[in-house]
């Protein structure tokens, strides 16, 4: 076939690392010579080489191949010539697309010399699809063999990758053994410590950035041994991100274990890798020195789940955030920050900082407010930690006995409840499988529209994923409960670790407290009570018995607090009464001044005020008269008893005589004061003295 003079003859050569094992015959140089000789013999001119050295035939993202296809799309190529079909590729679907669709559409002649394939003679190409399948089978078989070799190495504990976790370095004497790099290990320990203190990955990253600590990639490159990082995409060697911190917190290698097979490639064509499931991991325990202990790692994972989301101004967070839960619905309690209150006067109250159930007001859940101030909860938690720690240090034997009894009861109950939940969740997962199958069949048969199918499918899939995660978590807790060390001993070690503490730090709080369950309050005012359940790590809910001295101290403290609140209430009432009295004075003075100026409306209002004052004085006189008569009657009875020689009556009678003298002096003083005063206008009446307090005004309002 004659070649069009203005177009190219593309000679394509490819060599993968696996092909190098087959000897010199497949080398790039040999392929070029072979193709050039063929082109010269067949009269193919204007040749151009497209070469890919070291690229697998499974993937088609090869620079030389992509350049050749681009030239085909541009109409620059007339003929493509390869040594054999395997050089073009080992994916029979992709190879078939190019040879059967693209090349014919672009009027490109394709020649595979060793396979005797030439698109110019299509009758000789019937066996081409089978060649493509065989070439792909070869690639698949090679992939299986390589995967088997790696699996064998990993099962024997040997590493298949040169990458090692940050904080370790290679042992010069054994490349499969790791040694602790102390400089980087300090950073790893700091990250775990910050996580236990309640910081999230983003917050930890900010702290490390501010402290100007090298990120792992930059540290590896600047290490004294001069190792080169595979990832040099960072912009600043001192700016950490949450992904890097999360990766460090995820690694179990820091406990001294070797974890292999963490990613798996399911398809040799796509080369995409997925994260291995827990049962697929290959784990060898205690193969090198640990940087952190198992308890620290477990605590860090536990506290990572509690971390609350960061907000814009960073103020809506409390040290108990993530620990407080609603006892009725199980939802996490939401912290209400004082900064969220926007009062014009800028005042703040103790109730501004509080916790409330997050399900309250949610249209999908029903629950009550469960309000509690953060100050009350802080005080209760701190007191509980101190009391339990003091009890452990002074009565360790009794403490361990009580914990043992509680554990037996709790473990049996926990086991029954957890097994029941696991069974219920698994049954629901099976039901969802059936529903999904029926849903799919209904969609295929046209009974269910695509819109409904997609919506329902997403709902079922989300629910199934949640249930699977719940089952995995419960089964893990059941396994830990069976194999766990005695919680009492672990709690004793924890108390002794902090036995000399004065202040409860965030890390201590997270290490001691597992969760806090808040019940709804009962009653109002001084009668309001609220139950709070505090669960400690390792031992669960533990109540320290109160001594008589502590109970008496608690009673006194409660009485003092009630008295303080009552006095504060009375003081507020006195202040309000003084303000009200002052307003009445000012209003009365205004009306009086207007009346003296001749304002008829003011005169009527002032006369009404005076009438009310007269009526009130009459009522007060009648009341005082009745009170005076009762007092006189009682005084006569006391006088008779005193004359009869009753000691108690004699004391009471002496008090009565003393009060009479004081009353007589007060009355005489008032009369003398009245004589000195000038006469007021006819509509003005001077009030007579009453038994009211000197500072208290008569309860008269102008707007009667």
From TrEMBL:
The keyword Transmembrane does not apply. It comes from the Bacteria. Residues 165-310 form the Recombinase domain. Residues 622-633 have a biased composition (Basic residues). Keywords: Coiled coil. Gene3D superfamilies: Putative Large Serine Recombinase, Chain B, Domain 2, Resolvase, N-terminal catalytic domain. Residues 415-484 form a coiled coil. Pfam families: DUF4368, Recombinase, Resolvase, Zn_ribbon_recom. InterPro entries: DNA_bind_recomb_sf (IPR038109), DNA_bind_recombinase_dom (IPR011109), DUF4368 (IPR025378), Resolv_N (IPR006119), Resolvase-like_N_sf (IPR036162), SSR_resolvase (IPR050639), Zn_ribbon_recom_dom (IPR025827). Residues 555-585, 614-704 are annotated as: Disordered. Residues 555-574, 648-661 have a biased composition (Basic and acidic residues). Residues 8-157 form the Resolvase/invertase-type recombinase catalytic domain. PANTHER family: DNA RECOMBINASE-RELATED, DNA-INVERTASE FROM LAMBDOID PROPHAGE. This is Recombinase family protein.
């Amino acid at each position: 076939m004659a070649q069009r003079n203005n177009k190219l003859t593309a000679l394509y050569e490819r060599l993968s690392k696996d092909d190098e094992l087959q000897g010199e015959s497949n080398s790039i140089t040999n392929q070029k010579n072979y193709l050039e000789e063929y082109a010269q013999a067949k009269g193919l001119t204007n040749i151009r080489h497209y070469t890919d050295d070291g690229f697998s035939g499974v993937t088609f993202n090869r620079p030389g191949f992509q350049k050749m296809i681009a030239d085909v799309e541009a109409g620059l190529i007339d003929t493509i010539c390869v040594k054999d079909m395997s050089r073009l590729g080992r994916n029979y679907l992709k190879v078939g697309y190019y040879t059967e669709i693209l090349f014919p559409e672009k009027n490109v002649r394709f020649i595979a010399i060793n396979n005797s394939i030439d698109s110019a003679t299509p009758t000789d190409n019937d066996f081409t699809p089978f060649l493509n399948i065989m070439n792909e089978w070869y690639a698949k078989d090679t992939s299986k063999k390589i995967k088997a070799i790696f699996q064998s190495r990993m099962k024997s504990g040997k590493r298949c990758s040169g990458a090692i976790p940050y904080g370790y370095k290679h042992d010069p004497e054994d490349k499969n053994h790791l040694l602790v790099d102390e400089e980087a290990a300090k950073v790893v320990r700091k990250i775990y410590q910050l996580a236990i203190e309640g910081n999230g990955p983003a917050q930890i990253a900010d702290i490390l950035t501010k402290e100007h600590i090298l990120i792992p990639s930059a540290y590896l490159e600047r290490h004294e041994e001069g190792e080169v990082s595979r990832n040099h995409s960072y912009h600043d060697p001192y700016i950490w991100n949450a992904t890097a911190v999360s990766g460090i917190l995820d690694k179990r290698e820091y406990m001294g274990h070797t974890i292999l097979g963490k990613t798996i490639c399911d398809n040799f064509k796509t080369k995409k890798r997925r994260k291995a499931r827990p049962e697929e991991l290959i784990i060898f325990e205690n193969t090198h020195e640990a940087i952190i202990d198992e308890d620290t790692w477990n605590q860090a994972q536990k506290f990572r789940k509690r971390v609350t989301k960061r907000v814009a101004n960073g103020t809506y967070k409390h040290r108990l955030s993530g620990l407080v839960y609603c006892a009725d619905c199980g939802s996490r309690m939401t912290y209400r920050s004082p900064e969220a209150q926007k009062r014009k006067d800028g005042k703040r109250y103790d109730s501004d900082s509080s916790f409330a159930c997050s399900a309250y007001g949610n249209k999908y859940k029903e629950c009550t407010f469960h309000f509690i101030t953060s100050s009350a909860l802080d005080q209760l938690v701190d007191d509980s930690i101190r009391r339990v720690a003091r009890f452990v240090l002074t009565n360790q034997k009794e403490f361990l006995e009580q914990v043992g009894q509680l554990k037996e009861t709790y473990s049996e109950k926990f086991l029954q409840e957890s097994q029941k939940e696991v069974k219920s969740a698994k049954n629901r997962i099976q039901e969802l499988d059936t529903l999904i199958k029926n849903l799919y069949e209904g969609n295929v048969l046209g009974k269910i529209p695509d819109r409904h199918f997609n919506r329902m499918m997403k709902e079922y899939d989300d629910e199934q994923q949640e249930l699977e995660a719940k089952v995995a978590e419960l089964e893990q807790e059941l396994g830990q409960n069976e194999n766990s060390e005695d919680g009492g001993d672990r709690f004793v070690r924890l108390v002794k670790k902090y036995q000399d503490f004065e202040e409860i730090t965030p890390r201590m709080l997270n290490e001691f407290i597992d969760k806090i369950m808040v019940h709804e309050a009962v009653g109002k005012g001084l009668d309001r009570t609220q139950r709070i359940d505090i669960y400690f790590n390792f031992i669960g809910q533990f109540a320290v018995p109160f001594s008589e001295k502590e109970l008496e101290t608690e009673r006194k403290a409660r009485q003092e607090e009630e008295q303080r609140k009552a006095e504060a209430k009375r003081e507020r009432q006195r202040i309000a009464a003084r303000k009200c009295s002052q307003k009445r004075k000012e209003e009365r003075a205004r009306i009086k001044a207007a009346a003296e100026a001749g304002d008829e409306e003011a005169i009527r209002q002032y006369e009404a005020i005076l009438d009310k004052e007269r009526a009130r004085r009459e009522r007060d006189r009648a009341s005082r008269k009745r009170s005076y008569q009762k007092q006189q009657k009682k005084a006569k009875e006391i006088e008779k008893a005193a004359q009869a020689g009753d000691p108690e009556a004699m004391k009471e009678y002496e008090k009565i005589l003393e009060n009479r003298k004081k009353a007589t002096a007060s009355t005489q003083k008032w009369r003398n004061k009245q004589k000195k005063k000038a006469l007021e206008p006819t509509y003005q009446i001077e009030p007579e003295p009453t038994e009211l307090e000197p500072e208290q005004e008569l309860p008269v309002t102008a707007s009667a």
